[in-house]
C-alpha cells in the first residue's frame, strides 16, 4: 500500500493510474479514494491520475485528536500529496468537501495549480443557512459517535441530495452506500466537527476567490439545492471560471452521472492543456441589463 506523510505526521493512502500530466482527485465527505473509480478508468488513458483518502478516511490514518482536522489541513493535505509524489503542478478536481479544499488550495497555492474543478460545493455556505448547517453537522457527528456505521452511514446515504443517485442508478447507489458504511466512525465524527462545521463560508471568501487565476470549472447537479446559489457566486467571483449544471442530478455527480461529468471534465482539461481557456471578458460584468448603461 502506498502512503505519503503530511507535515503533522498523518499518513495518507493514495493510488495512481496512467501517465502524463497529473490530475489529483479529492473526494467528498461520504466518499474515499474509491469514489473516483469512474474517473480513473476514463482519464488514466490520458493523464497521470491520483486519488487518495483524506485524513480520517481509511486506509489513511484516523487521528484521534479533533484538532488535527480543519479546512486548512484538508487544503494542505493536497499539497502533501503533490510533494510526496514529486509533482510541481497538477489539475485539481474536488467534490463537495473536496471541492472546498480545491477552492482553498487554488487561492492559497496558485503556483501549484494547472486548473481547478469544483464539483458540488456549497453546503452550509449561504449566510442564512450557517446556523442550520452547524446544527445539522453536530447532529450527524453525534450519530457517528453513538450509532453503528451501518445505521449512521446508511441514513446519511439517503439525504435529500442523495436520493437522486438512488433513483438514477440503484446499483451504483448501493455500492456508494456499502463503501460509506465501511468508513471510520471516529474519522467521520472528527471530520464533521473539525472540517465541515468550522470551515468559513464561501460568501466570506469573495476577495480570496477573486484572486484565483487558474482555469476553473464549477459543476453542480440541478437538484443539489445547497450548492446551486454558491456555485453561481463562485461563477461570478472567479474571473476564469465556467459553470456547468447537470440536469436531474443530485450531489454525488461524479458517480451518479459519470459520463456527463467525465465529458465536461475532459473538454475542460483539453482546453486548458492546449491553452484555449480564456478569462471572462470584463464587459460581461457590466451593471446594465441591455448594455444601455
From TrEMBL:
Keywords of this entry: Hydrolase
Residue ranges occupied by any AB hydrolase-1 domain in the UniProt entry: 22-256
Pfam family, any one: Abhydrolase_1
Name recorded for this polypeptide: Alpha/beta hydrolase
GO cellular component, one term: membrane
GO molecular function: hydrolase activity
Amino acid at each position: 500500500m502506498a502512503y505519503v506523510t503530511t507535515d503533522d505526521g498523518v499518513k495518507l493512502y493514495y493510488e495512481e493510474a496512467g501517465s502524463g500530466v497529473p490530475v489529483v482527485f479529492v473526494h467528498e465527505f461520504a466518499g474515499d479514494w474509491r469514489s473516483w473509480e469512474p474517473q480513473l478508468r476514463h482519464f488514466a488513458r490520458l493523464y497521470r491520475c491520483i486519488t487518495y483518502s483524506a485524513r480520517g478516511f481509511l486506509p489513511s490514518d484516523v487521528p484521534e485528536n479533533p484538532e488535527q482536522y480543519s479546512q486548512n489541513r484538508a487544503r494542505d493535505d493536497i499539497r502533501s500529496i503533490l510533494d510526496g509524489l514529486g509533482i510541481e503542478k497538477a489539475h485539481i478536481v474536488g467534490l463537495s468537501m473536496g471541492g472546498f479544499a480545491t477552492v482553498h488550495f487554488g487561492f492559497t497555492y496558485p503556483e501549484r495549480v494547472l486548473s481547478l474543478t469544483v464539483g458540488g460545493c456549497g453546503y452550509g455556505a449561504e449566510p442564512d443557512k450557517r446556523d442550520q448547517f452547524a446544527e445539522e453537522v453536530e447532529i450527524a457527528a453525534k450519530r457517528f459517535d453513538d450509532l453503528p456505521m451501518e445505521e449512521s452511514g446508511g441514513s446519511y446515504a439517503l439525504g435529500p441530495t442523495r436520493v437522486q443517485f438512488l433513483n438514477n442508478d440503484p446499483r451504483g447507489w448501493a455500492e456508494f452506500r456499502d463503501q460509506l458504511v465501511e468508513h471510520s466512525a471516529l474519522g467521520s465524527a472528527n471530520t464533521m466537527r473539525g472540517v465541515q462545521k468550522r470551515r468559513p463560508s464561501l460568501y466570506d471568501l469573495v476577495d480570496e476567490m477573486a484572486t484565483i487565476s487558474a482555469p476553473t470549472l464549477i459543476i453542480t447537479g440541478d437538484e443539489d439545492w445547497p450548492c446551486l446559489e454558491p456555485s453561481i457566486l463562485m461563477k461570478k467571483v472567479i474571473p476564469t471560471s465556467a459553470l456547468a449544471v447537470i440536469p436531474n442530478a443530485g450531489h454525488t455527480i461524479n458517480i451518479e452521472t459519470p459520463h456527463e461529468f467525465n465529458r465536461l471534465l475532459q473538454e475542460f482539461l483539453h482546453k486548458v492543456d492546449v491553452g484555449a481557456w480564456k478569462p471572462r471578458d470584463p464587459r460581461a460584468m457590466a451593471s446594465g441589463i441591455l448594455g444601455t448603461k
